[in-house]
């Protein structure tokens, strides 16, 4: 921003020096009249009109940019809200998955315990049967 101000001041000084060195009176033809004016006033007046025009265009650009930034911030807030909702759903699904994994592990442990119990019951019966055969 400071560079912009410095460059503007340098440009203004150059225009003023140019206008001072060209101080002769000239005939300026407007659409509806002709006027004799010093060239310095014509140069400075033209520069001021140009600066005012640039200021107006810059103001419109800034307004448009500000509106665009405001719209983008609204979109960002909306997307962040959606992401938070999705993160909450992901957490719920992860918790449900953990519960399912725990249930499956518990059921697998129960199955293993029942198999072991069944094996223990079958072994004594086969032992008893072999004892009977040997007698």
UniProtKB/TrEMBL annotation:
<protein>
    <submittedName>
        <fullName>Integral membrane protein</fullName>
    </submittedName>
</protein>
<keyword id="KW-0812">Transmembrane</keyword>
<feature type="coiled-coil region">
    <location>
        <begin position="69"/>
        <end position="117"/>
    </location>
</feature>
<keyword id="KW-0175">Coiled coil</keyword>
<keyword id="KW-1133">Transmembrane helix</keyword>
<feature type="domain" description="Lipopolysaccharide assembly protein A">
    <location>
        <begin position="22"/>
        <end position="81"/>
    </location>
</feature>
<feature type="transmembrane region" description="Helical">
    <location>
        <begin position="39"/>
        <end position="60"/>
    </location>
</feature>
<keyword id="KW-0472">Membrane</keyword>
<keyword id="KW-1003">Cell membrane</keyword>
<dbReference type="InterPro" id="IPR010445">
    <property type="entry name" value="LapA_dom"/>
</dbReference>
<dbReference type="Pfam" id="PF06305">
    <property type="entry name" value="LapA_dom"/>
</dbReference>
